[in-house]
Design brief:
Blueprint lengths: L2 H7 L2 H27 L3 H22 L9 H31 L25
Length: about 130
């Protein structure tokens, strides 16, 4: 299929071909699982079963209509880095909260009530 065919048919053939590929691959792994069970290799059979389930799970996303974004490698790296950074920030916040709890540091209920005195020197009882 040429480049012009790809743009003309749009995204429909991508979904159909992905679905067909996933189903065929899942069937292939089911056959491999049966062969491994016949040979008595339960470890390989379990591995083939899990791989087959992975491809069947992929077909659920295709059937349900959840769009899969196709991005360039550079964009995928950027998105993955942003996702990892967000996960790390959440983990850091959770760790900080655990440390504060362990040390007995509680957040202030009303931050404005604890402002330092800003009125200059105190008058020490002088009338205002």
């Amino acid at each position: 299929m040429g480049a012009s065919d790809n743009t003309m048919s749009g995204k429909t053939w991508i979904g159909k071909s992905r679905h067909t590929f996933c189903i065929n691959t899942a069937r292939h792994f089911e056959a491999q699982q049966r062969k491994a069970l016949e040979n008595g290799n339960s470890e390989a059979a379990e591995q083939y079963r899990l791989w087959g389930l992975r491809f069947l799970h992929e077909t659920e996303a295709i059937i349900s209509g959840k769009p899969k974004r196709i991005v360039s490698d550079a964009e995928a790296v950027r998105l993955r880095a942003a996702e990892d950074e967000a996960k790390q920030a959440a983990a850091d916040a959770e760790h900080l909260a655990a440390l504060k709890k362990k040390l007995g540091i509680t957040p202030r209920a009303n931050g404005s009530a604890y402002r330092p005195f800003r009125g200059g020197l105190p008058t020490l009882g002088k009338d205002r």
